Amino acid sequence: MTTENTITLSFGAKTVQIYPALESAPLVIYHSVMGEGKKLFNECCRLNCPQFSFAVIGGVDWNDEMAPWPIPPISKNDTPCTGGADVYLEELTEEILPRIIDALGCKPTYCALAGYSLAGLFTLYAAYKTDCFSRLVSASGSVWYPDFINFVSQNDISKNVNAVYLSLGDKESHTKNQYLAPVEDNMRILQKHYSEKGIQTVFYLNQGNHYNNSTGRTAKGILWILQQN
């Protein structure tokens, strides 16, 4: 795998940077918040990930397009989430994903979705709304999100999903913020829930808080899903 033969696509304010595999391989889609896509791909290469194509989507409206439904600010200086995930997911599956596949020139063996923080929440949510993705990486996913566990219990995840990687920092639940505090309990609920449905599921607890080594944590998740049968 290499960063030399990259492909760039544009969708209005969004850009997609594609790192194509040299042959037919899985496609992993990742939503970037701080331009960390190339760093993440390089970390995946350092970990000797199996061959895969990598598409990094930047320029998303983080608090709208990654959020499944509206919620108020969760702290004094925070901004609200406005719940535009369904609208964005339609753009992703009907416009962005087909163009990525066209740019690759061959159909991926399967498509996976990966994300960190709120994009990790979106990764899980998307699997309840579309059959496009069969493997999921939710690294430090915002599963504290109000009513998300209720949503999971009342809805069916896509039958195409066969592997889910969940991770969190071991200090993330150590907070006085009533919204954030349940995050580890919720992660463990999700691990049990998906495992009971026969989905290959792992929950990895990393050292540190939410901001420790996000690239390394996500790369480990990508490596894991690529190694599953």
Briefly summarize what is shown.
The protein is an alpha/beta fold.
Any chance you could write out the topology, listing elements then pairs?
Elements: E1 7-11, E2 14-19, E3 27-31, H1 37-46, E4 53-58, H2 62-65, E5 70-71, E6 81-82, H3 85-104, E7 111-116, H4 118-126, E8 135-139, H5 148-154, E9 163-169, H6 183-196, E10 200-206, H7 214-227
Parallel strand pairs: 3-4, 3-7, 7-8, 8-9, 9-10
Antiparallel strand pairs: 1-2, 2-4, 5-6
Q: Can you give a write-up of this model?
A:
There is one protein chain. By secondary structure, the protein is an alpha/beta fold. Helix content is 34%, strand content 22%. It has an 8-stranded mixed sheet, sandwiched between helices. A two-stranded antiparallel ribbon has the order 5-6. It is globular, with a radius of gyration of 16 Å. The model has no long low-confidence stretch (mean pLDDT 95).
